[in-house]
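Two records follow; treat each independently.
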Amino acid sequence: MATSLSLFTLSDLPADVRVPSYARSDLTPGIVHIGLGNFHRAHQAWYLHRLMDQGLAHDWAIIGAGVRPADAAARDKMLAQDCLTTLIELDPAGKSAEVTGSMIDFVPVQEGNAPLIAAMTQPAIRIVALTVTEGGYYQTGTGDFDAAHADMVHDAANPDMPRSAFGAMIAALRARRDADAGPFTCQSCDNLQGNGDILRQTIVGLARLSDAALADWIDAHCTFPNAMVDCIVPATGPSELALARDLGVADNVPVTHENFRQWVIEDAFCAGRPAWEKVGATLTNDVHAYEAMKLRCLNAGHQIIANAGEILGVETINGCMENAAINAFFHKVELTEIVPHVHAVPGMTPEAYVDLIARRFANPQIRDTTRRVAFDGSSRHPGFILPVIRDALAAGTSVCGLALVEALWARMCEGTREDGSEIAPNDPSWDTLQAAAKAAKTRPESWLDQTRIYGDLARDAVFVTAFSRWLSLINEVGTTATLTAYVANDPQID
């Protein structure tokens, strides 16, 4: 029988479940983390947990936070098990479980975010970190700060009762400045190239709408380190809950993950930091090359295969890699159209990295759903695919396969698979995307008219011609035949 997870039952868990070596009573907070999803708990919280296991960083414990109504339900579940998390590593060679304890509290989720602001105002908090998804930073289609967004307009008009995480951070920084408590580091842990720079743009841009002097103080005193984060972490569902119980732990919010992690962090922390490098993180002042390799090969690679998989009804990412046509498509686009625009990093060439992620995607133990990976394409394609297309066009190299990636996304957004089943809405802008996708069935360029996504690419003749030809071919002969034609260099379409 599985043991309910709590601080009082850690000694009752099976002997092969690793538990913290440190006592919760020894920990004091140093970090507020906003966005306590599976990825954070399998990645950043794990690094800190392993550091605490070495007897270090006991004054850097995490206080969890959220700003969405759904975060309140997550808070209840976490507090019910003393903020402990069961991490289940899914290695092809076998499974293992570990309980992490680096998170010690979760602030109440309330309209106006008063409890969150109060927590961040405490001088002991030296880092405020976020995982709010790549689409959560209030950017325009050109990457600028979106001051006209309703949330930003609200927070600028109501700085003491903000709606967004960024407004809450600004309110806390105002209180700290006024109390001479000093700044904190603002740390993005999302999949965005230059994520720290983008976080600075959002925080300073929002602050400037209501208090220019505060904006200048934040810009001068806070730091915003860039970072690259990497670990494949599926969503938790009934099978993951059952897996935890099979391993002897009754955890209401367990997390499964692959047997790979990477964290590359710019060493720019205005108020100190844990010694993450002692547990495998890379601290550097040159994050960009690592970011570019990961975002362009892995994150773009997910988009290469996920849309085709959804259209063909392939439920998982490892299932996509088992599909011969999708697998061949993935490798050709990666090696011929992405790798030429990626630089090597210490110990890893782009070609070797593609081989690594192909093995990771194919891990049969990781049930990472195609639907999860395809979610929010309106943020992921501009973030991961379109920058490579722009670089390739500027260099005069092929964008044929990348244009096909975009055509597959357009076809997926029609909302039906090739077997006739429905693809449920899977993007915050689904209605707009679906309308454009349906219009593109008769006029492919209609999809590219979404200027908030494509901008100047909608006027590039090379890209537009390739995209239109691919989308027409998909509608004519189907996805598998189209992928096969691309891989075979069919002269009629390349």
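The next record belongs to a different protein.
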Amino acid sequence: MSEENASRPPFKRPFRHFTAPVTDNKEFVFGVQSVLETLRSGKEIDRLLVQRELGNTEILDLAKEKGIQVQKVPLEKLNRITRKNHQGAIAFVSAIHYAKLENVIADTFEKGEIPFILILDRVTDVRNFGAIARTAECAGVHAIVLPSRGAAQINADAMKTSSGALNFIPVCKEDSLIQTIDFLQNSGLRVVACTEKAKSTIYEIDYKDPIAIIMGSEEDGITDEIIRKSDEIAKIPQAGQVGSLNVSVAAGVIIFETVRQRSI
């Protein structure tokens, strides 16, 4: 370690308030009975696909009871996933157990730490998500928040790309990011949207107070409704000819600007 680094106070990693999630190597289960047993087991399910023409009532009722959204799809889509006897039902089992955002915020404040939350608005590429999770965990982000629909599936590719970070950083899945922003603002966090539509740069923002940073989808960035709900919007300055950065790279830039400011 250099003398310069030795003179700096160590960056305080946030309190990890939960037990590391249990991973599951099975990305999906298929067949009516297997899907029913998975639903009854209480395992986290990312997606539940049911054949449109033959929707199993018992599966639909149990999914509704547990608050799991069902996608009714044509037989051809199920056959593309597996040619085995799926009987019109496939459930994608999450590789992690999701945390509750309100618990993360409460525990962070109770420990005397400054909340640092990352919200991903419709980031769908699993490798981008895994890379972002790896960066966030290394930087001490307290939690990653995803929408319940339109987010990357947390599967083996995401786990691998995160280099195991998804075993340690809490991930929260929320039905409405708008309501989530309201909750965070009412909890004392400022919400900063990282978007090319901003006039100010990310280097003009103060990240030392409780904060939530929003990164947008690979296709069209952050939705206008979420931008309007944010307390501040900021962009990453660029000098080249390419229109934008990859979302995982952009997330790393603003995450570590937060770390830099908080380490001063």
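Discussion point: Residues 101-263 form a domain with the Alpha/beta knot fold (CATH 3.40.1280.10). How would you locate this feature using only the token line?
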